[in-house]
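>> received
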Amino acid sequence: MFSNPEDAKARGGKVAVNDDVERVRRAHQNDIENIYLFFANSAFYLMTEPNEATATNLVRAFAAARLLHTVVYVNEVKDLRVSGKKVLKTKKNCLFRSASRLG
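>> returned
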């Protein structure tokens, strides 16, 4: 059993997909996609010379949220994922309502 077609063809084997391995791969891919945005946003935020304690706590909160997201995703904790999406949607709706009142 091989994970990619090239190795399977070269050695006369079959390609097999392991769901657990794919789930971990997707979690890592998601983390990689988000870390560059985090670094860029952090750099811009630090240019504003924020309070050191505030900046430290925001970085810690982001790191904790990413770790929690990875653990929840890899372990397929559906209830927490749905709850998290509901919280984010609620916050987003509150921001849009606030912005529409200002404009």
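>> The CA atoms of residues 5 and 59 lie 41 Å apart.
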